[in-house]
Amino acid sequence: xxxxxxxxxxEEICAIVNDAAQAxxxxxxxxxxxxxxxxxxxxxxxxxxxxVFWGYAEDGLxxxxxxxxxxxxxxxxxxxxxxxxxxxxxxxxxxxxxLLTLTDRPTLVGTWAGAWWAVKFYEKxxxxxxxxxxxxxxxxxxxxxxxxxxxxxVVLADAKWRKExxxxxxx
Length: 171
What we know:
By secondary structure, the protein is α+β, with helices and mostly antiparallel strands.
């Protein structure tokens, strides 16, 4: 079952993020890795900034989470994580499919360049990487992240964004 997360889910969301983010260790720059990967205080800041989390639950247990955040004229997919033991069972794909029905806006997702599995996941679901110049522009326009993270990330765009921007030069 996919449902909108509530305040009572916040600690469980944090646990899922921190469990799943262990995959980053050794794959993202070591200066960007820390434990916990996302402290509860940071999760609360993300929610305060407009990230709305949705969760995939079975028997009352959240197995995966994914957030949506409307920023300016796009929707961002944020903080998509599935518990380690439940990966590769279609949970992330179901969450993404459901969340994409909740917006008619162009949709972007940013992830670590070293998280090849995440890039592959989004590409499998129709997203395509933008050019490096577009990536830098988009990360500065729609995300609030440090320059080092911009340098070590990629942005993938859905077909709506690509269609709207195919004839414009943003950089």
